[in-house]
Amino acid sequence: MTRRPPLSWFTLAAVLGTVHAVASISWALGGDLLVETVGEWARSWREASPLSAGLALGTIGVGKLAAAWVPWVAARRGGPRHGLRLAAWLGAAGLGLYGLANTVAGAVALTGVLGPLDDPVATRGHVLLWDPLFLLWALALAAGLWATRERRPTPEGAGRRPDAVGLRRG
User: Fold this and answer.
1) CA 131, CA 149: separation in Å to the nearest integer?
2) Which of 13, 115, 145, 148 is most buried by its number of CB atoms within 10 A?
3) What integer pLDDT is reported at residue 1 of this predicted model?
4) Are 34 and 23 in contact (CB under 8 A)?
5) Predicted confidence (pLDDT) at residue 169 exceeds the cutoff of 80
6) DSSP letter assigned to residue 115
7) Burial (0-12, 13-18, 19+ Cβ within 10 Å), 170
8) What's the whole-number mean pLDDT along residues 53-82?
């Protein structure tokens, strides 16, 4: 019987990534739910060039779905291997750094110390929803990758502390 790795971290990562993806796909199809939390530029782009905005947002949404679910599928098959594992680690690092940096930068901007905000609704949306969601997605993916890492067997006695000189018993 082969042991399957636990899927809980990969499942959480997939769900968090899917939330991001569904929003992008919804906006690509003309939906307005939470679009103001992204920025006025997004609404203006969709109004000025609906086809290019829709194609770009749809592509982004499909990319997010792939990034969310490919590691989960790989984990069901015994865990991501080699190139996919490296890509997943790089993705987790990128998502995490992006989410953390933008959450912190947006939070600082919300204090007013950098001056007045051009779009306070979008800034709050990024600080309270989108950027922490990227960070949580990254952390869940990294936890899944860490939990499914290959552990190398240790030689007999490795990991034991050697007896102090002169204190051996026996």
Assistant:
1) 27
2) 13
3) 46
4) yes
5) no
6) -
7) exposed
8) 92
Task: Report the length, in residues, of the chain.
Answer: 170
Report how far residue 169's alpha carbon sits from residue 136's, in angstroms, rounded to the nearest whole number.
51
pLDDT exceeding 90 applies to what percent of the chain? 74
Question: Which is nearest to 96 in space by CA: 67, 60, 125?
Answer: 67
Pick the closest to residue 99 from 2, 14, 16, 1 (CA basis).
16
Task: Give start and end residues of each alpha helix (H) in the chain.
Answer: 8-28, 40-48, 50-76, 82-110, 120-125, 131-147
CA distance 166 to 146: 40
Q: Is 120 helix (H, G, I), strand (E, B) or coil?
A: helix
Q: Which two tokens stand for residue 75?
A: 């984990």
**Would you give the distance in Å from CA 139 to the centre of its chain?**
6
Q: In this structure, are residues 67 and 134 in contact, taking their beta carbons and an 8 Å threshold?
A: no
Judged against a pLDDT cut of 80, whether residue 5 lies above it is answered with no
